[in-house]
Design goal:
Length: about 210
């Protein structure tokens, strides 16, 4: 009669690595192969790790023929435009891809190309507001010469601008009063200050008569 295969025996291992019997907690015997014992080792063992070794502090070498950030962004953005969940319009998607493809010097020698991280934060802000606000309207996005972006909404009497910064957003709201005076409001928000960003947009949409204390 053929011997019944052990529960943990690897039927594909070489003959010279036959299984060995090991006791279990229940006192029974179960078969482990040499390969099985290797697989059972903790995955985060750091035998021989030397944090002072220069090997662990070598600079990362660039991959051969890496994709440009603009191309990576364009591929991701294309998927977002086609996504039924996020519903970015093709017009806005095309605009964002055009901005991501800008090169330094696009508006004079001092104009820096939009930074990939700034573009990513801009898309994230738009998707967040779109998801959180049923009345959301897509903005107009423009580049700044410092390598960031500015997201703008315009209505008859009110204008709202979110300018990306290193740490978050510079928020500016302006409105025209009944007697023609133009009044400006300013605030700063980190990327995690979602309540400030939502309050500012609700003000622009006319849900708040007064500029929120943000």
């Amino acid at each position: 009669m053929a011997r019944q295969q052990g529960f943990l025996e690897d039927p594909f291992e070489a003959p010279n690595f036959r299984s060995r019997s090991q006791p279990t907690y229940s006192g029974e015997s179960v078969e482990y192969s040499q390969f099985s014992r290797l697989r059972a080792r903790p995955p985060f063992v750091t035998v021989g790790f030397d944090p002072a070794s220069s090997f662990y502090w070598q600079p990362l070498r660039p991959r051969e023929n890496p994709l440009s950030p603009a191309l990576i962004f364009a591929n991701v953005l294309h998927s977002l435009v086609l996504s039924e969940e996020f519903r970015l319009s093709r017009k806005l998607g095309q605009r964002l891809m055009e901005l991501s493809a800008l090169k330094s010097g696009w508006d004079g020698a001092n104009a820096i190309a939009p930074k990939p991280e700034a573009m990513a934060h801009t898309v994230g802000l738009i998707l967040f507001l779109q998801t959180a606000l049923p009345e959301f309207e897509e903005p107009f996005v423009v580049p700044t010469i410092s390598g960031f972006t500015q997201v703008e909404w315009h209505s008859g009497a009110r204008v709202l601008e979110f300018e990306a910064t290193t740490g978050g957003w510079s928020v500016v709201g302006s409105e025209t009063k009944s007697h023609g005076e133009r009044v400006y409001h300013e605030a700063d928000a980190t990327r995690s200050d979602v309540h400030k960003l939502l309050a500012a947009y609700r003000w622009f949409a006319g849900q708040e008569l007064l500029w929120p204390i943000i």
